[in-house]
Specification:
This protein is α/β, with parallel strands linked by helices and 621 residues long. The chain is 46% helix and 15% strand. It is built from 21 helices and 20 strands. It has a five-stranded parallel beta sheet, with helices on both faces. It has a four-stranded antiparallel beta sheet with strand order 5-4-9-10. Helix 12 crosses helix 13, helix 13 crosses helix 15 and helix 13 packs antiparallel against helix 17. The chain is globular and about 90 Å long.
Length: 621
């Protein structure tokens, strides 16, 4: 199948923050998933370099719009590369290729009669002597009563032309007047029926917020929309008589999906028509044929109607059998510490800061597993650290590590794959794939971690550390099954072992906590193995002082400064001679959390009882 994925084009007027990333990362997940399935994928996006937001930022920084857009475009490229986004092309609206293709498309729509000229009153500032763009105006929002820009309010309300009458010029503070102005408009009203049919046949593939917002606009009736503005920065209008105007940024930005896909196809000698001129399937029929295609649009909820109504209308106006977007992947907002992201407050975490200070892979997982799919969600460093430490490091990292790096194993042993394990893996893959294709990314992440939990339980139940000594055939069978799971999850022999403190700082080293309630032989075996694997310190938890394991390890403890022993019924570890070393390890930051690299070898009850005491100790040092 041919898959085309378009990620929203961020304005090149400020740094990307994690809210932007949370709304776009679903596109990268889809691209990687479809490539893994063997589909042909084109995944594109770029920087939106034109329009009033760019000129406003340029004024603030005292440089030209071109310089400001180039500056932030380069930062965007660095951000997406650092976050491992797998775009086939990340471009910008400032390329000559994009500009020329956009002018061709707009001219074609004009020639088809879908774009026409109209004279209407528009806000004009007599002091600044210019027609004003909506975002250059300031009004009191009719919906919430707060002061807002004229393009959209934080409450979600989009002011009408009537709302903007008498608006204040944000540049000089004077009230504007209404003055006739000539512009080109796209006749959305004439395409209402076609758009309604398209929405009815495809909305079941969209996120709920996209369905609701689109249907609201359709109920209100589509209004023709201006595609030109009195601007000096942007793409020239390819129609005679409009030399003093530029194309409105919204029309040329959404056309970036088309121009970027065209560029990829040209560069790779691919058939563009097979991706974008495949007719949409009839209602109730899903795209699944080898020669069929599917188009995803990935963006935030503030851009829904541009992708579900306006962009499809532009494609329809060309009368060239363009396929319309099949799937709308529209996210809600990501807040920061229970506050909406705000440039003035500076409360959002920038993408570049996150790349520098956090683990990119676990950050990606956290934004997917805790992302704003159905409602606004909140990002805090502490919650990210919990995902990194508990979900990824302790579960996945520990599983892959102890499976693929078992003592004495230099290659995956030959063994018999358990039918039940094989079926569990196949079922998990099918279920996770279905979740991804139905945009249930959080559920997909949960199912993946559930499979890791099952794998860890299987490891503990099989006890390979005993099999290795007593039943080598059983050991080989166990590791055949576990290695299959581990390799499927890790993608390579790279294990995530980093541990973070509550600020996100890497404080890991290689340290382990092991829990035992049986004899000391297994504990000593695991300790020796971990030391050979480069662990700087091993902390062993024992369920009782009178356990033979504890007594045997006491001697080992006295001889090896890097082994720390703790018995759960020794209630004063600070003063206990042996456990004092464990306390010293914690004080040095060697152990930063009660479940750090926790290796439960089958005695979960003992660990559950022991860890709370450690947790209490750690809180107080």
């Amino acid at each position: 199948m041919n898959i085309l994925i378009g990620g929203a084009w961020p304005y090149a007027n400020y740094k990307l923050h994690l809210g932007h990333v949370a709304g776009l990362i679903g596109g990268d997940l889809l691209a990687r998933y479809h490539r893994a399935k063997g589909d042909k994928v084109i995944y594109v996006s770029g920087s939106d370099c034109h329009g009033t937001p760019i000129t406003e930022r340029a004024k603030q920084e005292g440089i030209s719009p071109k310089e400001i857009s180039s500056k932030y475009h380069e930062l965007f490229v660095k951000s997406f590369e650092g976050l491992n986004f797998s775009y086939d092309l990340y471009t910008s609206t400032e390329t000559d290729y994009h500009k020329e293709k956009v002018k061709e498309i707009v001219k074609k729509s004009y020639e088809n009669g879908a774009i026409y000229e109209k004279v209407e009153p528009q806000a004009y500032c007599e002091h600044c002597q210019k027609f004003m763009a909506d975002r250059e105006l300031q009004i009191v929002c009719p919906n919430c009563g707060n002061i807002t820009k004229g393009d959209t309010c934080d409450c979600g309300y989009s002011p009408t032309d009537e709302d903007l009458i008498g608006a204040t010029c944000r540049e000089c503070g004077n009230k504007t007047v209404q003055k006739d102005n000539k512009n080109l408009y796209i006749s959305l009203s004439k395409m209402q029926g076609e758009i309604e049919k398209y929405v009815a046949e495809n909305k079941h593939r969209w996120r709920t917020n996209a369905q609701n917002e689109t249907e609201k606009y359709l109920r209100e009736g589509l209004r023709d929309r201006a595609i030109t503005r009195d601007l000096t920065w942007g793409i020239d209008v390819p129609v005679e008589g409009y030399d003093d105007k530029k194309l409105y940024v919204w029309i040329e930005a959404v056309l970036g999906y088309v121009t970027a896909a065209m560029k990829v196809c040209e560069d790779r000698e691919l058939d563009f028509d097979s991706f974008w001129r495949n007719p949409n399937p009839p209602s109730g029929v899903e795209s699944d044929g080898e020669n069929d295609s599917k188009i995803y649009m990935v963006h935030g909820k503030d851009n829904i109607t541009f992708h579900s109504i306006i962009f499809p209308a532009i494609l329809l106006s060309l009368k060239e059998e363009y396929r319309l977007p099949d799937v709308i992947v529209s996210s809600e907002y990501l807040n920061f510490n229970n506050e909406k992201a705000s440039k003035s407050k500076g409360n959002a975490i920038s993408a570049l800061d996150a790349i520098e200070n956090l683990n990119v892979d676990t950050l990606r997982f956290h934004l997917i597993s805790n992302g704003p799919e159905r409602k606004d969600t909140n990002f805090t460093i502490s919650e990210y650290v919990a995902t990194h430490n508990n979900e990824v490091t302790n579960k996945l990292g520990n599983f892959v590590n102890r499976t693929l790096k078992f003592k004495g194993i230099s290659e995956i042993p030959n063994g018999k794959l358990d039918d039940a394990i094989e079926e569990k893996i196949k079922t998990a893959y099918e279920e996770i794939g279905k979740c991804i294709e139905t945009l249930e990314f959080k559920e997909a992440a949960e199912k993946a971690i559930r499979l890791v939990d099952d794998a860890n339980k299987y490891y503990d139940d099989r006890k390979p550390w005993i099999q290795f000594k007593e039943d080598i055939d059983g050991f080989n069978d166990t590791n055949e099954r576990l290695d299959l799971l581990a390799l499927d999850k890790s993608g390579a022999l790279v294990v995530i072992e980093n541990k973070l403190d509550d600020t996100g700082k890497d404080v890991s080293g290689k340290f382990a906590i092991i829990g035992f309630s049986n004899g000391g032989g297994d504990a000593l075996f695991m300790h020796e193995f971990l030391k050979e694997e480069g662990y700087e310190s091993v902390c062993i938890l024992v369920d009782a002082v009178n356990n033979p394991c504890f007594k045997e390890l006491r001697a080992k403890n006295n001889a090896d400064a890097n082994i720390y022993v703790y018995a759960s019924d020794s209630r004063d570890p600070k003063n206990d001679r042996i456990n004092g070393r464990a306390w010293t390890a914690m004080k040095k930051g060697l152990i930063v959390e009660e479940n750090f690299q926790g290796i439960d070898v089958g005695h979960g009850r003992m660990l559950k009882e022991t860890f709370p005491l450690w947790s209490e100790i750690i809180k107080n040092f």
